[in-house]
Amino acid sequence: MPDWKGRFMNTSKRDLTRIRHNTKIVATLGPGSNNVQLLEDMIRVGGLNVVRFNFSHGTAEFHQENARIVREAAKRAGQEIAILADLQGPKIRVGKIEGGSIQLNKGEKLVLDAALEGEGTREAVGLDYRDLPKDVQSGDVLWLDDGLLTLTVDSVDSSKITTTVENSHELKSNKGINKRGGGLSAGALTEKDFRDLKTAIAIGCDYLAISFVKSAEDLHMARAKVEEEMKGSNAIRPGLVSKIERVEAIENLDEIIEASDGIMVARGDLAVEVGHAAVPALQKRMIRRARELRRFSITATQMMESMITNPVPTRAEVSDVANAVLDGTDAVMCSAETAVGAYPFETVTQMATICAVAENEQDSLNGVDEDTGGVVANINLAIAGGAVSVARAVDAKAIVALTESGSTAFEISRHNIQLPIFALTPSISAQRRMAMYRGVRPMILATSTDHDTALREVESILVDRQILKPGDQYIITSGSQMRQSGSTNMLQVMSVD
User: Fold this and answer.
1) What number is the average pLDDT over the span 182-195?
2) 161-181, pLDDT tens digit by residue?
3) Is 243 a catalytic residue?
4) In the chain, which residues fall in CATH 3.20.20.60?
5) Where do the CATH 3.40.1380.20 domains begin and end in the chain?
6) To pair with 113 at 20 to 30 A between CA atoms, which of 56, 97, 480, 489?
7) Cα–Cα dist 396/82, whole Å
């Protein structure tokens, strides 16, 4: 196991030179990273924008303490970051196995028994997912342990599924099960998820990730549960992220995207269901559709997996992260690399560097169609599109959005532009939400209610922070009625005196 304590104490060698990049980085919290100093350094270097809490592990008290650690680190770094609560979803897994594992050889028979109580043996292995016998028939192919073990179904008799082992493999307790081509009936939300949702809201999560989504209905159910839990509260509701990891989700992709605030390209389980070769093209399609439908995307799974044990990534991992950036993803995500890996700081700095270099070589993103055909859905979209067009025309140094909710900054970020987008808001919740949006740099500022005074305040803070200098032109969007959500109706070209 990594010497986490020793590593946390040895902070003097960390290079905290800020790495500027537009693509956001999501890091999973775990024993390898739930340390205030380490997280603060990750934030300061520009390697951490969103922290993922994996609700497959840990108690409510565990997550509460981790939320405290994250907020303390952000406070010390002077930059708010978002918390993404990732719900476990249905446990489509084998049960516990006596001794922890069994060795299976090609050609042998293995019985999966949904009614088995206690530990499994060579004779039969239990199932956490008790409805599996109803979902399979003779000839179906099951993939276990992320596709490392293949079983062909011979027959189904009541609770027992008799299978033939297609390749030799050591099967360990609680390994996941996927069916080739999809078709498992398990819903996206379980009773455990509903309990965890309460915990996630209580700790102030900014996003909820819903696992194994099959249709828009899963999102509607999740939103209803959020509303039920937050009834009477004026707090901003957490955004919903759909994890695309089922065949059914691909078939219903557009409706799922539109029902979500963003999607996660969850390449692990997805690859097992559709085949590894299909994933790269699907990744590009999902990211493109998310941008076209004005939602954000997160690309996840094994992006820097070698860095669990190594201080540098492989060349293939570098290319993988860079290609996700070039595809237009809003965020790239680490899982075990930062949760239990030996090099969490190095992982996020490497990712930040890769993002920065890829963006530097990128002419444009695969973004929204900027030709609306003369039809604009609302004023907010028109202002966002106008800001981008004018910024290009006048060679602006930045786009600045005065925003209450963050929606204008988000709409600007959907366009093909590499300029930094500075979003100033009086809302900490909005600031945290915007940590997910590609190219958006959220800042906290409660401006004057007088419009002209507010603009002077904004320019002053941007100059003081050396974001702008005398002679720089920039674009600013605002509302004629300051400090009112949904009031953005003005676009101005400004020049620093």
Assistant:
1) 91
2) 999 999 999 999 989 899 988
3) yes
4) 4-89+187-360
5) 379-495
6) 56
7) 29
Q: Can you tell me the mean pLDDT for 69-94?
A: 95
The catalytically annotated residue of 301, 349, 408, 447 is: 301
Residues of the chain with CATH 2.40.33.10: 98-179
Of 11-20, 211-220, 415-424, 487-496, the range with the lowest mean pLDDT is: 11-20
- CA 325 to the chain's CA centroid: 14
Mean pLDDT along residues 292-316: 97
Catalytic pick among 24, 44, 52, 71? 52
Catalytic member of 7, 93, 160, 237 = 93
Quick one: CATH architecture of 98-179?
Answer: Beta Barrel (2.40)
CATH code: domain 379-495 is: 3.40.1380.20
CA proximity to 425, closest of 449, 397, 453, 447:
447
Cα–Cα distance for residue pair 205/190, rounded to 1 Å = 19
Amino acid, single-letter form, for residue 373: G
**Cα 291–chain centre separation:** 15
Tally of CB atoms within 10 A around 392: 14
> Which is nearest to 449 in space by CA: 420, 409, 482?
482
Consecutive H or E run containing 407: helix 407-413
pLDDT in tens, 323-340: 999 999 999 999 999 999
Domain 4-89+187-360 class in CATH: alpha beta
Amino acid identity, position 162: T
End-to-end CA distance of the chain: 57
Task: Indicate if the pLDDT at residue 366 is higher than 70.
Answer: no
* SS3 at position 99: helix
Catalytic residue among 175, 214, 243, 433: 243
**Distance, CA of 387 to CA of 389 (rounded, Å):** 6
C-alpha torsion sign, points 454, 460, 462, 464 = negative
Both tokens assigned to 182: 């999809």
Residues 6 or more apart whose CB falls under 8 angstroms from that of 230 comprise: 201, 237
> Is 93 assigned a catalytic role?
yes
Length of the chain, in residues: 497
Q: Between 438 and 450, where is the model more confident?
A: 438
